[in-house]
What we know:
The protein is mostly beta strands. Helices cover 0% and strands 38% of the residues. The protein has no helices and 25 strands. Strands 1-5-4-3-2 form a 5-stranded antiparallel beta sheet, with no helix packed on it. Strands 6-7-8-9 form a 4-stranded antiparallel beta sheet, with no helix packed on it. The radius of gyration is 17 Å and the shape is globular. The two termini are 22 Å apart.
Amino acid sequence: MSLRVDLEEVDLSSDHFVNDQTGWICGSYGTVLQTTDAGTTWHQLTDSVPSQQVQLNAIQAVNGQAIFIVGAEGTILRWDGSTWLLLDSRGVSHSFLGMHFVDENFGIVVGDGGRALITSSGGDAWTFTAVDSEEGFLTDKALHGAHFLDVNRGWIIGEQGLLLQTHDGGATWEFQESCTALDLHGIAVHAYGDGLLGGLGWMVGEEGKICATVDEGKTWFLQDASAHNVPLYRVGGYGAFNPISVGELGELWYPPTSSQVAPTLLDYRV
């Protein structure tokens, strides 16, 4: 059924749009909603979520077909076209907080306690990924987000400005210099060949911190968005725009161009 959603009833934590009309959002109580008319109406996909009380933290639609969700208690879900499948998360009971899929097969999920899993089979099987840790975890810090340019090059971000990078698909990781000691929540990097956005990227976090790159993530510098001292949670979007979500306060949109990397604020309240 189609319905108008009262956003005050649930805590919405993540959204993903594949074009200017079709998108999904998820949040508390196993809530999953889809729109095909730019948010005018929403279709409830919650009934088939295996645990309707679980907090869902991140959602991504890959090529508009495969949809993945991660959440509390090691939850990883995949939409099969009619229902949500609960995927095996290798016994992880910590919350997964972020993820990124390059395509329908290769993806990474990250979360509390340095837990990170990588799949090359669309979630049918997962392997742990770690950085020189006897416990087999990346770090004891919470991992909030990840982004891969392709199946080889990627980053993980987290608590206290944590920034890790890999050049071999997550087989090995190295610590990279960040631009802040505050928690980072969202990251996106565009390859050099990606039109006007080629080579550009952003990380966002607490106190309105925005870190930017113009060289495909090799180096990062701090952008001044201190006037908007609110936590920023996500970098993403559709087309030439990169929305940066601000959690409970709404969204800030920063439309970049090839000659202007500094943010321009457009304030949107949910």
